[in-house]
Amino acid sequence: xxxxxxxxxxxxxxxxxxxxxxxxxxxxxxxxxxxxxxxxxxxxxxxxxxxxxxxxxxxxxxxxxxxxxxxxxxxxxxxxxxxxxxxxx
Length: 89
Fold this sequence. Notes:
By secondary structure, this protein is mainly β. It has one domain (2-87). Helix content is 0%, strand content 36%. The strands form 2 sheets. A 3-stranded antiparallel sheet has the order 3-4-5, with no helix packed on it.
């Protein structure tokens, strides 16, 4: 999940299974679309060994009267890899 220099977040999911996955380029990699590392990547599978399939679960609900979105990133074995919770301010 990258975050741009102005604070915009991009939630996305790649391949569903390992056979269709590939390692991503990390910020600062001269071969990437962000060679100057301006985008902060909170979670990335940047090596061929770490690349795996998975899915993104998004839940939107009220927590103490505040609209809240929870983004859970799982691998194909349902192991939670990363979680982000966003509340309306």
